[in-house]
């Protein structure tokens, strides 16, 4: 184990300690949740990155996702033509790409993957997988069946995960609600997985496998962080109970695909709206900060970059160091993490891709840790979406959701950081899994 791997190992426990410092009740600590939550991450990481059979499985998953992503492009090319071709790509008709267009090349894959997941739900494949993970979480960490089910479903889907626990939302404790929110924001949905793969695949060919691995690791991490920040002080009704997923099954497979595609279209519209709105607002804030900052720089004869990204970068800088990122790259990675908080992970992944393409990051280790630590919906826009979405299913709990919302966002952010630290522990330069 190298020095940076050891720093990453220590980082897992430093992050957990920071979560405890932010706890709503430091006297209540569920050691079983902390122990098994961290152990589960280590077990998953050892299987994927150390054992030969796990490495082969990792590469198989990466190849599978990339192949499915290639299938998803067929529909986009039929509808958008050359606009859907990635830079440098040529279609069967000999037409070449017109350049990079996020809206036509990456975003349409959301619709395809949403339809695919809906089909897997209809075929009862997805509920079976989700219930399997839920059973493990319930038995090992001894948390409620409802929050286990929510955390498990968030490995694969986004806000839709709240539907599987709809009958239990009105009876959940505040700690359970925090876990539901944290698990939702600390992981990613399969419907947007392709978007991130598209963004980073050229720089990191095995990125699909890494993102699947990151989402698996982040689920138990989100449970650990949420239980440290808002520990359970009540008795959940489904404590230790194996809860079955609740979902509406369509009449037939075609109807399921149509409904999934329509859901994907709504999600696509939401992503586009968020990017336009938040990037515009951030640009406006940067303009105001730049004007004020220029006067401060002149007054005190200093040179400081007065932008949201830089300011948040300084806040995340200490966390980036304890993840095991080399100091030479730490500030750039910290800015990506800070940017994710206000501008969504889509923008951060795009900027990570640019840093890698321009060799701005000195170590491949930094890019790997960043790709894991960014793998989650841990930002303010997502917080509003999850509170609004879950609140619509359980209107009586909207006040409780709002009260624990910021703590859940903090838990989700720390969960993503913990996932980055776990990846840093097992990073080995030259390994095929890391794309070197």
Total helix count?
Answer: 16
Q: Largest sheet, described in full?
A: none
What's the structural domain tally? 1
Mean pLDDT: 86
Sequence of secondary-structure elements: HHHHHHHHHHHHHHHH
Fraction of residues in β-strands: under 5%
The residue fraction in helices comes out at 55-70%
Write out key terms for the chains shown.
mainly alpha; 16 helices
Structure at a glance:
This protein has 436 residues and is mostly helical. Helix content is 70%, strand content 0%. The two termini are 18 Å apart.
What does this molecule look like?
The chain has 16 helices and no strands. By secondary structure, it is mainly alpha-helical. It has one domain (3-434). Helix 2 packs antiparallel against helix 10 (207-229). The mean pLDDT is 86.
How are the SSEs placed, and which strands pair?
Elements: H1 3-21, H2 31-49, H3 52-80, H4 102-105, H5 109-122, H6 125-141, H7 145-153, H8 174-186, H9 190-200, H10 207-229, H11 253-300, H12 308-322, H13 327-357, H14 364-373, H15 380-393, H16 398-426
